[in-house]
Amino acid sequence: MEYTIAHRTSYVYPDSVHESYTVMHLQPRSDALQFCSRYELRVSPDARVASYVDRFGNDVQHFAVLASHGALSITTQSHVVTLLPADPPEPVEATRSRLEADREVESLWDFLHESAYVQFTPELAAFWGELESPGERIGEWCHSVSRHIKSRFAYDTSATNVRSTVREALAARAGVCQDFAHVMIAVLRSAGVPARYVSGYLFRGNSTSNVLGAEASHGWCEAYLPPYGWVGFDPTNDLIVNDHFVRIAIGRDYRDVSPVRGVYRGSGHSEMSVNVGMDLLQTAQQQQQQQ
């Protein structure tokens, strides 16, 4: 599938601010699962943008605006081709034995232990009482965890915030995609299954479909499941990640991959707005498949 994505983040300050520094994870990844053929970034006020690749292989941009300013806007335009199938198979061949025999696991320490927002708390231990035992067939078990989170948590944008931890999400039994992903990651890691956070976008497809989190940036979980490698699960919608998902960045949790973050001198308050538009490009091959 081919998509064009427009993402605009705007800040308005009640009083002028200065010496602002901003870091962005907004550039879609190019890897075996997708290809980003175009990425354009515009910043207002004008600023010189620098970039680097972080420890997780994400493309990161950053800039500073030293002069006084009362507003800041960041706009990106991307073109991405996704390569996953529309209906991925259940990872039935992923087993505990294969995971334990896989040498790659030794390099995945970050995705097996606690992180800033993913913690092994007493609340998580209590939540384990609702889940099936992982057993040998861990691929199917991962999907059952996703299904359980979807059925037991309410999607509520007012229940948590961007700094909420697994403890808070479990206490509320509600949250947004970020929280659903953090809970699943915590469960998988505590079971010895490497798991990481993925930020990106989710295409709604049919406008009548009941897809949550498709109006803005989205977040989900990837589990390392030999012989498949990394397999994506979206507990917000109980989906195995398919060609409707566009990946931007991967990390231990949301803190590693937040789309836009920064600091500045001046007013302690700001108003932020985020607008995301995602359109499907109908290629000749896709049109033939639909006929």
Features:
about 20% helix, alpha+beta, 2 domains, single chain, about 290 residues, C8orf32 fold, 7-stranded antiparallel β-sheet, disordered C terminus
How is this structure best described in words?
The protein has seven helices and 14 strands. It has two domains: 114 residues, Immunoglobulin-like (Sandwich), CATH 2.60.40.2250; 161 residues, Roll (C8orf32 fold), CATH 3.10.620. Strand 10 and strand 11 form a beta hairpin. With 291 residues, the chain is α+β, with helices and mostly antiparallel strands.
Q: What's the Cα radius of gyration?
A: 20 Å
Average pLDDT level: 93
As for the CATH topology of the largest domain, it is C8orf32 fold
Considering DSSP H and I runs of 4 or more, what fraction of the residues is helical?
10-25%
Provide the CATH architecture of the largest domain: Roll
How many structural domains are formed by the residues? 2
How far apart are the termini?
16 Å
* Percent of residues in β-strands: 35-45%
Task: Identify the overall geometry.
Answer: globular
What pattern of helices and strands is seen along the backbone? EEEEEHHHEHEHEEEEEHEEH
Strand element count: 14
Per-chain topology:
Elements: E1 2-24, E2 34-44, E3 50-53, E4 59-65, E5 69-82, H1 96-101, H2 122-128, H3 138-152, E6 154-155, H4 166-172, E7 174-175, H5 177-190, E8 195-202, E9 218-225, E10 229-234, E11 239-240, E12 245-251, H6 254-257, E13 260-265, E14 271-281, H7 284-290
Parallel strand pairs: 6-7
Antiparallel strand pairs: 1-4, 1-5, 1-13, 1-14, 2-5, 3-4, 8-9, 8-12, 9-10, 10-11
Helix pairs in contact: 2-4, 3-5
